[in-house]
Specification:
mainly alpha
Length: 217
């Protein structure tokens, strides 16, 4: 993956591939959008085409650093924007086909409980669950579809979706960038970064389930 992204480094195709993956994984949570974001950031932090071009013209180290930071900023912006876009598409689809999605969610006790907690949290202004769910496995799908099914308003859902997308994109890009900067672009760097991403997802899932455990007791 790093080799393939390395060939595309410095071209718009990197941002297109990452953005499409992030948009679609709200519907297909198994898509490795987080892994792609990390891999792209790792490549940008390494000796990609931007670095080679900078070295070739022998510009200052500050310009070199600025080129890397520009790539990283664009990558984070694309990932965050695509995350919000995917959330809103799922939200709109679920809102229009509410009964169908409601029946589908009702078949799962876990999804039904998550939907109920989401509605309560958004109504009370505690949309932090939207941010946590963005890191949890399939949590983004449950939150976006649940917000549409329960007819939450755009004003209630969109700000939290934007905050969630920004937090997730910043965390994922930072993992890839600093991992690539400190460890290079070998497989070790993205592997450790992906482990850290999944660790954050596990922690988020635990925090989301905690109210259920307190209620059960």
């Amino acid at each position: 993956m790093l080799d393939d992204l390395g060939l595309l480094a410095g071209t718009p195709w990197v941002y297109v591939i990452v953005s499409v993956s992030v948009v679609l994984d709200v519907f297909v949570p198994i898509l490795p959008s987080g892994v792609l974001v990390i891999a792209a950031a790792t490549t940008a932090a390494g000796s990609g085409t931007v670095a080679d071009a900078v070295d070739a013209v022998d510009v200052s180290a500050s310009a070199h650093s600025g080129a890397h930071l520009a790539e990283i900023f664009c990558l984070a912006l694309c990932a965050a924007t695509a995350s919000v876009l995917g959330d809103m598409i799922a939200y709109r689809l679920a809102r229009r086909g509410g009964d169908r999605f409601d029946r589908a969610i009702g078949r799962s006790r876990r999804l039904a409980a998550a939907q109920q907690r989401l509605g309560t949290a958004l109504t009370r202004g505690g949309g932090g669950i939207v941010v946590l769910a963005r890191f949890a496995p399939a949590g983004r799908s449950v939150v976006s579809l649940g917000a549409g099914v329960t007819h939450r308003t755009v004003r209630e859902f969109l700000p939290w979706s934007a905050l969630a997308g920004l937090a997730w994109a910043t965390y994922s890009v930072s993992l890839g960038y600093f991992g690539g900067h400190w460890l290079g672009t070998s497989w070790v760097s993205p592997a450790l970064s992906v482990v850290a991403l999944f660790a954050a997802g596990s922690a988020a899932a635990y925090l989301i389930r905690r109210p259920e455990r307190r209620t059960a007791h």
